[in-house]
Design goal:
This protein is an all-beta fold and about 55 residues long. It contains no helices and three strands. The structure holds zinc ion. The site of zinc ion (ZN) has 8 residues, from loops.
Length: about 55
């Protein structure tokens, strides 16, 4: 079971989780990105600010 890279809490992922999926750590609430699925690896999701300008 992968661990949250921020608080080290174990994260349970569905078997159909796909790479690039964004999840939220149930323990610390940090948004995490699935960076790999074999085995599951997690990274803190980039906190990008969207540019909404046209
Ligand atoms: Zn966490």
């Amino acid at each position: 079971m992968p661990e949250c890279p921020v608080c080290s809490a174990p994260i349970e992922l569905d078997s159909d989780t796909v790479e690039g999926e964004l999840i939220e750590c149930p323990d610390c609430g940090t948004e995490l990105e699935v960076t790999g699925v074999d085995p599951f690896t997690l990274a803190e999701a980039p906190q990008e600010e969207e540019d909404w300008g046209q």
